[in-house]
Amino acid sequence: MRWSATVLAVVILGTAGAGYLYLQHLNGNIRKGELLSGDSKAKKPEPNAAGQTPMNILLIGSDSRNSDEDVKLGGARENRGTPPHADVQMLIHLSADRKSAAFVSVPRDTRVDIPRCRDPKTGQTYAPVNALINTSLGRGGPGCTVATWENLTKVYIDHWMMVDFAGVVDMADAIGGVDVCVKENVWDRPTPDQPGGSGLKLRAGTWNIQHEQALQWLRTRHAWGSDPLRARAQHMYLNSMFRKLKKENVFTDSGQLMDLAEAATKSLQVSRELGSVKKLYDLGMQLKSVPTDRITMTTMPWVPDPEAPKEHAVPDGANAEKMWQMLRDDVPFDKNGKADANAKKKTASAAPARTPSVPAGQLGVLVQNATGDSTTAPVPLRAKDVAGVLAQHGYARAAADTSATGLSESTTLVRYPSAALEGDAQAVAKALGLPASSVTRSTGVSGVTVVVGADWRTGTSYPKQSQPKAGDLPSNADAINGADKGQCMPVYKPYQW
């Protein structure tokens, strides 16, 4: 819930100019960490016809209470020193042509598969687990959260950024506040039915919030009614901040500019590859160039968790996969771009075809059943059926993996462990009618392995997949366009006053 400060830091550093010594001072402020500390199956996208690739940045809001200031702002002193949670997680997707941006939040209480992770600071290794996504931060740091996202979405993540309670307040003060709107008087306070609360208290209308009040807005959950609605309030805040930065020249005052840069770099923790003012500057200039009407804020489509329907969420199957596919294929979340520009950046080049190392009849192929998900049971004997299809194409040594249970993949994949088997994996995918994008290298397999996903639950022919179009988001993505100034949060009845 503190990611807004991180985004603001990027914009600030994208416009800041300073002398060498001051830049070195700012560089010294930035804390850095490993990009990835867990097992991941995501594949870096190929450049499009113009040689461009999209950029994906994971923003993490930590609830860490490991400093006096964080305890003061976040309360819960009894939690000081405990592993932090990634209570806000949001992916920023910058399109390959840098003309649009998509933001996707995942509710903190979403149950997902967290892969094997190793904490780069302590060396401790954590086994794979099915748990709430916000616990990933305490199982290997931000790099474990990145690995969790990559396995959930199959979207390659280039960088991460993280900020805590104190960072939000510092950045809100530095920018001079952000305008927000509530439809009714709101007071997020303890009630007989629900303890806790952020303390946010506002009358109905539009208000400029800063200082601790900005943190209260971003942390408020009960007064809006749910965790996903908290994400909507955060999206409104961020859109308002972007509009303010584009409308007002907040960088002409040198004193304010230095305050902004100082607060930004002190608030940030970033992946090592992004750990300099120069790199943040370059990223900031790219973010700054995106028009507000090409910015779309969304939340992952979700459904109640069957194991805890009143408390937790799980991804909404096909709807969530549609959103992930739009990110992987670099399809804009908005409809405000020019059609020819959108078409041009779709022409990503596939990996070059490789020659198989052995004839089909000599290749051992393992087929796994991953047709189930958190809400749907796997199709019985599905791996055996697809192995039979391969046998008809000459792969006599194809066999179902009866030892693999509890697997879940939204799309069907062909995995291979080394470059020597890439051509074989491509040939297997072609025999099954799978797209070239389904072929991926993975250290988690020992040979060519077909993972039958939820997109192929029936039949012997891989079903033709429809390609998403610009702006064609699932109805439950709760999308808000960055240029929409009319957004105003409704208040849950028990917290009106």
Describe the structure concisely for a colleague.
The protein has 497 residues and is α/β, with parallel strands linked by helices. The protein has 13 helices and 23 strands.
Walkthrough of the structure:
With 497 residues, this protein is α/β, with parallel strands linked by helices. The chain has two domains: 3-337 and 476-495, LCP protein (Aminopeptidase), CATH 3.40.630.190; 360-452, Alpha-Beta Plaits. Helices cover 30% and strands 18% of the residues. The protein contains 13 helices and 23 strands. Strands 1-14-9-2-3-4-15-23 form an eight-stranded mixed beta sheet, with helices on both faces. Strands 19-18-22-20-21 form a five-stranded mixed beta sheet, covered by helices on one side. The protein has a two-stranded antiparallel ribbon with strand order 5-8. Strand 18, helix 12 and strand 19 form a beta-alpha-beta unit. It starts with a helix and ends in a 16-residue tail after the last strand.
